[in-house]
Amino acid sequence: MKPNTIVTKLQETEETKPDYALAISLMHEKLLLKNYSKNTTKTYIHMFKQFLRHTYPMPLYKVSTAHITHYHKELITKQNISASYQNQSINAIKFYIEKVLNLPKVQYDFCRPRKGKKLPKVLSLNEVDSLLKCTYNIKHKTIFMIIYSCGLRISECLNLKIEDIDSKNMRVWIRNAKGNKDRITLLSPTMLLQLRAYYKLYKPKDWLFEGVEGKQYSASSIRQVFNRSKRKANINIPATVHTLRHSFATHLLDAGTNLRFIQQLLGHNSSKTTEIYTHVSTTNLINITSPLEMLPK
User: Fold this and answer.
1) Tell me, what DSSP letter sits at residue 209?
2) Is residue 106 helix, strand or coil?
3) Is residue 278 in a domain?
4) What are the φ and ψ backbone dihedral angles of 161, each rounded to 5 degrees?
5) 113 lies in a domain?
6) Domain containing 55: what range?
7) Domain boundary residue among 47, 74, 108?
8) What residues contact residue 73 under an 8 Å CB cut-off, 6+ apart?
9) Which of 147, 234, 280, 292 is the most buried (most CB within 10 A)?
10) What sign does the dihedral 223-228-231-232 (CA atoms) show?
C-alpha cells in the first residue's frame, strides 16, 4: 500500500481486510438494535474507524488491551486530544469489545483521563434579553426562546414536534433525549404566546422547526444565527447556543428554585451534575459577607 492519505488508507483497509469491514458493520447494527441516538452512533463509528486506521493492517483478533492503551497514549502525546475525545474513543472501543464481541468487561478496564472542572459560561438576564431583541426573524427568536425558557439542548429543540407542546397543561415533552429518556419541562405563558405567533406565520406540519422541504432545521444554522445575534447584542463572552441552557438553570437557581427540580427539568441523572450551577449563581455570592468586612474599622 502506498503511503497515501488517511481517507484512502481507510478505504483500502475496508476493501482488503474483510474483518475490519465486518467489524464496522456489526458495530453499526448493534448500535441500531440497542437504540443508541444518531449522534452517539455517528461518534462511536467515527472513533472506531480512527482506531482501525491505527491498527491497520493487523488482524483484529490479534489486537490486545496493550494495543488499545498504546493508541490512546499516542493520541495524548502526539495529537494533544482532549479528555472528552479520549473518553469517547474508549467508550466506542469498549462497546465493540463488550457489546459486539460479548467479552467480559473486567478484561478491558482502561485508564480514564481526568476531566478539567470548568465552570459553565452563563449570560445575565440583561444579556439574554438583548440577544432576543437582536434576533429579528421570528423563527430564530422562537428557537432561542424555547431553548432558554425550557433548558433544552440544541438537539432536543430540533427534535420537537408540534404535539410535544402541551398548552393545556403548560408543559413541553422532550422525547428520546440524551440516554433515550423522555422528560417534561415547563411551558411559560410568554413562550406559549410566542409559539402561537410563530405557528400562525410558518404553519409547520411535523417538526416544530422545519427547514427546507419540511425537514428538520439544522443545528449549524442555529449556531450561525446565534453568533450573529450575539455580535449585534455586544455580548463578548465565548457563549454558544448551549449557554442558553446553562443560563436557564442558573437563573432558576438565582430565583430560589430547588436544585432537585432544576435537575429534573434538565434531565440530569445525577444531582452532582446540576450542582455545578451553584458555583456560578450570583445570589449565593451576594448573600455572603467577605471576612474583610468583618475586620475592625
Assistant:
1) S
2) helix
3) yes
4) -115, 165
5) no
6) 6-108
7) 108
8) none
9) 147
10) negative
Q: How many CA atoms lie within 13 A of 60 on its CB side?
A: 20
Domain count, the chain: 2
User: What is the spatial distance between Cα 60 and Cα 22, in angstroms, rounded to a whole number?
Assistant: 11
Written as nine digits, the cell of 263 is: 435537575
pLDDT tens profile 86-97: 888 988 998 998
- H-state helical runs in the chain: 6-16, 18-33, 38-55, 65-79, 83-95, 125-133, 138-150, 154-158, 189-202, 219-232, 242-254, 259-266, 271-274, 282-286
The answer to whether position 119 is within a domain reads no
User: Would you give the DSSP letter of residue 169?
Assistant: T
Distance from C-alpha of 269 to C-alpha of 124, rounded to nearest angstrom: 26
Residues 91 and 185 in one domain: no
The answer to whether residues 196 and 241 belong to one domain is yes
- Give the active site residues: 153, 178, 242, 245, 268, 277
CB 28 within 8 A of CB 41: yes
Whole-model pTM: value is: 0.68
Extract the C-alpha cell encoding 170: 403548560
The span from the CA of 30 to the CA of 253, in Å, is 40
73's grid cell:
497514549
Please count the other Cβ atoms lying within 10 Å of the Cβ belonging to residue 111: 10
